[in-house]
Amino acid sequence: MKRILTILFIASLFFLDGSAQTKRPKSGQLMYYQITEQGDTVLMESLDPVWVFPKGRKMKDNDWRKYYKLVYNFNKVYPYALVGRKMMAQVDSTLAADVTKRSQRTKYINDVERELFRIFEKDIRSMTVSQGLVLLRLVDRECGLSAFEIIKNYENGFAANFWQLVARIFSHNLKTRYNPKAGGDDAKIEELCKIWDSGEWVPFYYSIFMEYPPRVVIQRETLQSEVSN
């Protein structure tokens, strides 16, 4: 009996030593530390920022899902609206300074249209219908014109009416102006714009999805088209 206990004891020491077992790979990451004046070692770690929603916000589960979807879509399309504002200002400035003939205007607008297709067609085609609708609201907010007015001003009335008809098929109205004071989705979009402009978008997005917002990369923010003499 003593012999058996001795063998078991020696075997246990052998396995506890770890030389006869497969060691688990190390996981995790090293933590920073700081030594205090008293000589104690204190481990240090930084926590990701979180967004605390204000009191009084009450939504049902389905409403929260819609809101999260809006946040996700907004993150994807708002950079395009901001770039669109810059490009429209560039077009307006060029038309005012360099265009003297109607033929020049027509050719320049056509060149801009082709350039915009080259820059944005692939990205916009990959958007969902709901993302496209959010983009239209944001374009109105940034440019101060409805989608119908933009088409009519830079193309013609026939084109504007045609795309208005297409929009109607998808239960949307290109003439509807952005109006956050009326409530609804525009009010929610305006709230997201303010969070973005305040520089708190990243922690806000992280608090919802527990991951950092995907970065939207746009080829260019200015147009290369010029007015031909």
Features:
mainly alpha; 229 residues; 2 strands; elongated; single chain; two-stranded antiparallel ribbon
What do you see in this structure?
With 229 residues, the protein is mainly alpha-helical. It has a domain at 71-209. The protein is 60% helix and 3% strand. It has 8 helices and 2 strands; from the N terminus they run αββααααααα. The protein has a two-stranded antiparallel ribbon with strand order 1-2. β1 and β2 (41-44) form a beta hairpin. α2 (61-98) crosses α4 (129-143), α2 crosses α7 (184-197) and α5 (147-154) runs antiparallel to α6 (157-169). The longest helix is centred in the middle third of the chain and has 38 residues, at 61-98. It is elongated, with a radius of gyration of 29 Å. The termini are far apart.
Write the layout of secondary structure elements.
Blueprint: H1 2-17, E1 32-35, E2 41-44, H2 61-98, H3 102-125, H4 129-143, H5 147-154, H6 157-169, H7 184-197, H8 201-209
Antiparallel strand pairs: 1-2
Helix/strand order, N-terminal first: HEEHHHHHHH
| pLDDT averaged residue by residue | 79
Strand content: under 5%
Radius of gyration: 29 Å
> Could you give a short account of the major beta sheet?
2 strands, antiparallel
DSSP, total strands: 2
Low-confidence stretches: 7-11
Give me the side-by-side strand order of the main sheet: 1-2
What structural class do you assign from the helix and strand content? mainly alpha
Principal-axes shape call:
elongated
What is the distance, rounded to the nearest whole angstrom, between the alpha carbons of the first and last residues?
A: 108 Å
Number of helical stretches of at least 4 residues = 8
Helix amount: 55-70%
